[in-house]
Structures are given as C-alpha cells and as structure tokens.
Fold each of these.
Amino acid sequence: MIDFLTNDSTMLVLFGLGVGILVGTTGMGGGSIMTPLLILVLGIKPTVAVGTDLAYAAVTKTVGGWRHWRQGTVDFGISFYLGIGSIPAAIGGVWVLKVIERHAGANFDKVMLVMIAVALLITAVAVSWRAIFVSDAAERERETIDLQRRHKIAAIVVGLLVGFVLGITSAGSGALIAVALILLFRLTPHRVVGTDVFHAAILLWAAAAAHLVSGNVDLVMAGTIMIGSIPGVWIGSHLAMKLPAEGLRPLLGMVLLAAGTGLLAKTGLNIPPVLILLPPIALGLVAWYMHTRRLRLQPMKGAG
C-alpha cells in the first residue's frame, strides 16, 4: 500500500493529473497508461494495478461523463447498447481472471503481464489506426444515428469484446470503443469522446466493483491518484470542446507501443531496447508524414 506522504504519492497525483487530462480530452488513455505506469515505475503487483486502476478510473470518468452530458456530447442510445454487452462481459472477465490465477499458480504475475502487454499493443494499433487513417472521414461524420437492429447488435458485440478485455487487463476501453464509434457509427469527434467517456464511466463501476470483491483494489492508492485525476479530467473534458485531439493520438499510440513492449520485456523476454524505441519512433514519423500530406491536399480539395 502507498503511504500518502511519500514521493510515490506525489508521483501518483501527477500521474493522475496527466492521465485525467488525456482522458477528458481524447476519451482514451486511462487504463492503457496508468496500469503500466503502476507496474513499471512503482512495481505494483499486476492484479492490484488493474483493480486499483479501474477503481480510480470509475470515479474519474464519472466526472468526465457528467461534464460531457452537460455539454450535450453523449449519444445515450449507443451508450445503452454498448453497456448491455460490456457490463456483464467485464464482470465475467474478472471471474475468468480468478480461474487463470488458480491454474497459473506461481506464474500468474507473468501471465498477467503478457495479457496486459497484448491488450496495450492491440490498443496501440487501434489508436494509431484512428490517428493515421481515420482522419479523412470528416465529411461522413454525424451528430447522432437512427439505431437500426444491425447497429444495436454491433454495439452489443463491441461492448462484449471490450468489456471482457477491460475486466482482465483494465486496458483498451477508451481507444477500442472510440474506433468503433468512428468506423461503425461515424460520429463527430466531440460525440465520440463524450459517448466514449460516458459509457466507460458506467462500465468501469461494474468492473471496479468486481475487482474490489476479489480483493484487487488498493483504496488508498486509488484515492491518491484521484487527487490528480479528477481535476485533470475536468480540465480535459473542457478542453475537448476547444482543442483538436489529433496531435495527442499519435503520441498516445507511441506511448502504448513502448509500454506494451516494455511489459513484455519485464516477463523475461530478451527484447533489446532498440526494439522498444524504434516502433514508437516509426509511428511518430508516419503520423507526421500523413498529417503534412493531408495539409497539402486540403487546398487541392478546396480548389476542386
């Protein structure tokens, strides 16, 4: 447990502030960033890192979700059908985690690190795809959607998949849901962030409660993180209406790639430092190239 009056506590508050701003602005990066920080920087046991992350994030995203609800950036219909799938799946994921713990025995921490790392790498791909390839779809974006049966089924299936991953690893909810909201429902950026954060707030309460019952939550640590994360998400959700998130998304993808490979290295895999650093750098260069290319093409589209 973290002593409140230590340097670790100061780091937790700063971590919470930074992640809170990122979550409020982009709807992404909560569990995907905080869990590896707790494991790699502070050496927290993986299951406790996951459970504590979900507990603080539930409160943090509730603040952000309330802000987005007040700003009118939440699609409640899509959130409802996402929740039908995600909430039971997240609780089921925590149960599956207990089953894995019984069977893995002494190797459980290593198994957890591998699962979290894989979830981070999948999330990194989703974030990077959104940042690099989905930015040209503005002309097809809409504020809301008349939900047909296929849309409802799609939302439930996405919720099932994301909820299960979240329950086990605490990672991916924001990024994966955001990509689905863009590709499947073609919502505008502000509606994507608002709907994502609002749905995540409900989902995280369910997952956090399941982890609390399982004994995986350090309440003091979660409270310390919230000292920074609650004002951070408040600031971020306000900035979401004013600042474009395009610049943050490639950076988030770069961090997730490095964190995922870093966790794999912690399991004992012989991963050279250059292989941890090169993929994020390559991603940053590709994102910069695609951004400058879009800027060059905009005058041409306007002229056409």
Amino acid sequence: MGYGKTHYITKGRIRAYSILLTGQQWVNKIRVKPGFRSDVDIEDAVRRHILNSAVIESQGLTVTCAGGKVTLSGMVDSLGESEEAGLLASEVRGVRDVKNNILIKLKRKHSGQEIKNDAVAALERDVYLIGLPITVTVKDTVITLTGSVGNFYEKERATEEVRWIMNVSGVKNKLKVEWSKNCGVRKDETWPSADALKKALRAELDQDSRVDASGITVKAAYGHVIVDGFVSDDYQKRIAEQDVRDVVGVRWVTSNLLVTADQREDRAVRDDVQFNLDTDFTLEGFNLHTKVKDGVVTLSGSVHAWNKKRYAGDVATRVRGVRKVINNIKVVRERRHSDAALIK
C-alpha cells in the first residue's frame, strides 16, 4: 500500500487528486478544509463563474449554498455543460462539496445504436486506446464501458473520450485494469490512409459536444494535419487542436484556426477573468494581474510551479469573449532553507 498524488490530463483540462493506491484501486481520501467564506459570497462567486463561462450556453441554472456545500440545479443541453458547471463550482474558493442536480435535455435524440457507433469509433481513433478490448453498450443515452485496459490512465481516458459525444447523458466505466508485462491485451494497430485519417479527424471534431466544428476544415497528408477555419472562443480552439492531436495517424499539426469571439467590452472580459483568478482555490495566495485589449488577455504575476501557470491560463481561456491568452506569469521557485537554518 502506498500514498501519492497524481495529475492527469482530461481532454483539454488538468485535474489533481490526492489518492490512496491499493492494488489496482484508486480511492480519493482527501478532505476539503477551505478558508471561511460566507455562503452568500460562495453562491455569488459560483454563479458568476458559470455565467461568464465560454463553455456553458444554457441559461437559468440555480446555485444554492449551505455550510460551504453547493447545490446546482436546472437544465442543460449536454453532459459536457453539466460537468463543466460542476467543475467550475468545485474550483471556487470556500466550496467544501458540490451536489450536481442539473438535468440534461438533449436537443436532438440519437438512437442507442448511433451513440454506440460513435463511441466505438471514438475509442478506435484515440492514439492511447486503439486496439484495447473495450466493449460499449448504450441504454437510455448512458454509455457503459466493459472489458480491460493496461493501466488506470487508460481507464480514465476511455471515459473522457466518450463523455463528450453528442447526446450522451452519462458514462458508467466498468473497465478492469489488468496490467501485463507485455501489454498483451492490445491488438495490432492499423495505420490509416490519408483519406481514412481525414474522415477520422472530421468525425472527432463533429462528435465533440464542446466544439462547434461547422467552421473548421482539415487536410491530411503523410501524417501532417492542417487545421483551418474559425471557432467562437479560445477554449474551443484549444479543444479542437487537442482533439486533432489525439487521433491515430497524426504526426504533427499546423493550426491556422482563428477565434471570432462574441464582442464584449475589454473591461468586462478583464473583470471576469480577474474575478475567476481571484476566487479560484488553486490560485489562492498568488498575486496575478490581467490586461485585455481587443479580446486578447495578458496575464502577469508570479506562481511557484509551472502547473499553476498553465492552470491560470486555462482559467482565463474559459471566459466568454476571450480570443487569445498570452501567459506572462513567471514561475518563481520557493526559497529552500538549509537544515541548519531551520534548526535556528
């Protein structure tokens, strides 16, 4: 048995968990003890994070807070919006727990077979998951994954790969982690032709509920992918670029994507970005500054770790009206004292 901390990359986001590793099972034992904030302040902060989000389009979500425990309710159009709202709430300083009661009302229903086909194709396109013996079943727009993978990362990535598919309302991950020395669970991989790669890229973008890919075009030759077109915000740009990089057969990517963000006053964008930075528990204690010109956000200040700098950039990216983020935050290592100095 051993203790540790892990950071793993979801599709476009970074999350951190304290974990207890017991054999092949990961158990989250962390207790949240945030600094005191009134429930009214927490409600207002969570509500504002949701309202200025570039990801959540649905309106009318309700936020309540009692004893630092936040409850979300209302209705959205996709699983992605529901989970984004829950994640945004959990990032607010002072929040002890989040209960997500948001309901999902799909705009256009797909049959279970259509969702299954999309999920199977998505897993086979993913460079980390192709060839693994994963079985997909669908009931009432909820995907269930069974089979086996070689490690915990692959198990979590499988969930992340299918949860963003259009019309999916939930994912049940029943995959078993069965590590083997020779990774014998994986089947032989087939390298896609240029036409097959282009179709896979198109499907990956079209199925991601976080991205409006109607303005995106892709070209592929010898593993080199060129992405052209436009999206409505910098968050979608980053997600689209990551989607393309994760497809089997892609060697390198040239992105010419342009951001045509909704017109917002620079002062409003600046206020929202700065508010999100100031109220985020992960960034508490850091003196960060924001400037905005023509929708381009420039961040400055200092943090003590590279992942904090990247996280701050991610926070800024998710605000409505942001066309681009220039991250000039400096990473300043904390001063370390010698044993002798500590004894004194």
